[in-house]
Amino acid sequence: MGRTAVADRLTGMVALSSGDDRADTLMRLICARTLALPPLPLPVEVPTENTDAESVLVAFAEQFSTDVTGIGDNQRTRFLEAWGADAFRTVVTMYVADFVPRVWAGCEALGLGMPGRTAEVDFDGQTDPIDFVLNGFVPEVARMRALDPVTTEVVRLRGAAAHNCRLCQSLRERHALDAGGSEDVYGQITDFERADGLSDAHKAALRYVDALIWTPSNIGEDVAGGVRKHFSTKQALELTLDVMRNGANKILVSLGSDAARVDEGTELYEIDEAGQTIFA
User: Fold this and answer.
1) Are both 147 and 268 inside the same structural domain?
2) In terms of domains, do 68 and 192 share one?
3) How far apart are CA 280 and CA 278, in angstroms?
4) How far is residue 113 from each of residues 15, 217, 253, measured CA to CA in Å?
5) How far apart are the first and last CA of the chain?
6) Residue finishing a domain among 118, 139, 160
7) What is the spatial order of strands in the sheet that 277-279 belongs to?
8) How far, in Å, CA of 227 to CA of 96, rounded?
9) Cys bridge to 28: 37, 39, 78, 189, which one at CB 3.0-4.6 A?
10) pLDDT of residue 1
């Protein structure tokens, strides 16, 4: 996926609708406020008073954006009861509201501009956001190959731990293992600054991952400079999009659907040429 395709995909993502304009407006405002970043364009005026379901949504979106691991069973149950059959679609659009501002902040810090940002948005009430994000964007990013497999896997596992995705943490990508990845290497990700099995490039990437996840409004020049030093422009863009792609695990974690496929140990998988996940 080239830069133009990336911009088009992000533009289309920003235009997506959950089917409820008020909900979309609230999610975009709450996620942006939590991140201390400008919100995505709003489809309607800010509601002056929230319904009970909207109040539940606001609290859920705030926790989703701040730290998805803090969503407990009670809050999850209240959200599912309030939003019913629309819950999954709503959380997918919440993910867009949460992560596109992070991508733009990261790209700006790296000197890449804000790909896909437009002055006006033609909101799209027809396209299914679930299909657009999970069957379109996610595999498209997975097909990108500017980064080496080990770096891609190290970055994925850092995000998996940050969001405490049980499924993601249980997986190991075959191409990365073939390229030199190992449990010894992956075990050093937690305390990567003191790791001797991770390269300076890996450490620069991991600092950037942490910044996008925890402090996207304050990506320091030391972090951005490290990425520019070790990665090309094309690789830096892929790295940024990888963090967003991996961040789709927040959808599963928030809904409690992130259980591992194995009872213990790890499971082997690979990303095929179509960007699809193939389990061993």
Assistant:
1) yes
2) no
3) 7
4) 19, 15, 31
5) 26
6) 139
7) 171-173, 267-271, 277-279
8) 24
9) 39
10) 80
Tokens matching residue 29? 């405002």
Domains in the chain, number: 2
Q: State which of 121, 139, 157 marks the end of a domain.
A: 139
Q: Is 122 helix (H, G, I), strand (E, B) or coil?
A: coil
Question: Residues 198-242: pLDDT tens digits?
Answer: 999 999 999 999 999 999 999 999 999 999 999 999 999 999 999
If asked whether residues 149 and 275 sit together in one domain, one would say: yes
Residues 169 and 207 in one domain: yes
Residues 44 and 162 reside in one and the same domain: no
Closest C-alpha to 192, from 148, 221, 161, 171: 161
* Residues 117 and 179 reside in one and the same domain: no
Whole-number pLDDT of residue 280:
80
- Report how far apart, in Å, the C-alpha atoms of 245 and of each of 16, 46, 96, 205, 249 are: 17, 29, 11, 15, 8
Residues 132 and 159 in one domain: no
- CA 173 distance to own-chain centroid: 18
Measured on CA atoms in the order 106, 60, 162, 280, is the torsion positive or negative?
A: negative
Measured in whole angstroms, the distance separating CA 126 from the mean position of its chain's CA atoms is 23
Domain that holds residue 253: 141-279
Neighbours of 185 (CB within 10 A): 20
- Residue 270 pairs with which residues in a beta bridge? 278
pLDDT bracket for residue 15 (50, 70, 90)? very high
